[in-house]
Design a protein that fits this description.
Number of strands: 5
Radius of gyration: 37 Å
Oligomer: single chain
CATH superfamily of one domain: Urease accessory protein UreF
Order of helices and strands: EEHEEEHHHHHHHHHHHH
CATH class of one domain: Mainly Alpha
Shape: globular
Largest sheet: 3 strands, mixed
Length: 322
């Protein structure tokens, strides 16, 4: 083929314009880029569709390395130092009996349940007046002692023994236990507190949550039924597990003490929750001790708290009944 501009059969062919050459070059480059992009899309899309599917085989395990909440897929187990925890997404839910037990415990031991607990401070009012309790730290220490070594532990033992006697049908032991628990309180106002709450708890439970055998158990006691014994009898009559009842009861007891202290010191809501959080392991350990204890283990080493309950009877100004 003759070169551009060379004569052919007596005529000259003009050279191609420079703009046409550039246009043809750019068009070829675009076509090449589109071909490469099509190849990439054709290759990558199937890969993405494949890698989004979980691989076959055993369930995967995700290790949590921080106390933060881990977000994992349903069915993925969380490996912890103590072993493999159950999946976070438990779709099975509670059984009918478990759901009913939890619902009743949350209702009976809620601050909204009308047993009048907000009217009593268990001697905390005098301790604030005397300067023993002045801030969140001193309230925390006071309540920790009351719970682990004072009336909290004793009430837990009475609850456990009442629950077991009622569940097993040991009516003689239940009657003796109710009498002992009523006589075990350390002051007149403390006796008024636990007896009034026990009576209110029984009356409301019979009116709204009565069940077969509850009236008979109450009649067997033949006298004053203090608050922990009342909770033990009612929970046993409804076949609610003892361990759950114990920890729910102690949590409610501590929460009421903190509520009284928050109004008396006074404390803010955040400090009150800090005290409750600090007492969490004390509640758990005291509940476990009370479940293992017998009546021979009853006793108190919180003499200052017992004196506070007695001194409150003659306190000049009072907001609470104990």
């Amino acid at each position: 083929m003759p070169a551009a501009g060379m004569p052919t059969r007596g005529k000259a062919i003009p050279a191609a314009p420079r703009c046409m050459i550039i246009h043809r070059t750019a068009t070829a480059a675009i076509i090449t880029m589109m071909s490469i992009a099509s190849m990439i899309i054709t290759t990558v899309i199937p890969m993405l569709m494949t890698t989004n599917k979980p691989p076959p085989g055993p369930r995967r395990s995700a290790t949590v390395r921080s106390p933060a909440i881990a977000r994992v897929e349903p069915g993925v187990e969380i490996s912890t130092a103590a072993g493999v925890a159950p999946p976070l997404d438990d779709r099975s839910g509670l059984g009918a009996g478990e759901a009913a037990a939890l619902y009743r415990l949350m209702t009976w031991l809620s601050p909204a349940f009308p047993v009048g607990a907000f009217s009593y401070s268990s001697g905390i009012e005098w301790a604030v007046e005397a300067g023993d309790i002045a801030d969140a730290g001193s309230l925390r220490d006071w309540l920790g002692s009351m719970l682990a070594d004072g009336s909290g532990f004793s009430d837990g033992v009475f609850l456990a023994q009442a629950h077991r006697a009622a569940s097993s049908g040991d009516h003689a032991s239940l009657r003796d236990l109710a009498e002992l628990a009523a006589a075990f309180v350390s002051s007149r106002e403390r006796q008024l507190e636990t007896a009034a709450q026990g009576r209110a708890f029984m009356d409301i439970a019979r009116a709204a949550w009565n069940c077969h055998g509850l009236d008979r158990l109450i009649g067997i006691c033949q006298g004053v039924i203090v608050y922990p014994v009342a909770v033990g009898i009612v929970s046993a009559a409804h076949a609610i597990p003892l361990a759950s009842t114990m920890h729910g009861f102690l949590h409610a007891l501590v929460s009421n003490w903190i509520s009284a202290g928050a109004r008396l010191v006074p404390l803010g809501q955040t400090d009150s929750q800090r005290v409750l959080a600090w007492l969490e392991p004390v509640v758990a350990s005291t509940g476990s001790r009370a479940l293992r204890a017998s009546l021979d283990d009853l006793g108190s080493a919180t003499f200052r708290a017992d004196l506070a309950g007695m001194r409150h009877e003659t306190q000049y100004t009072r907001l609470f009944r104990s």
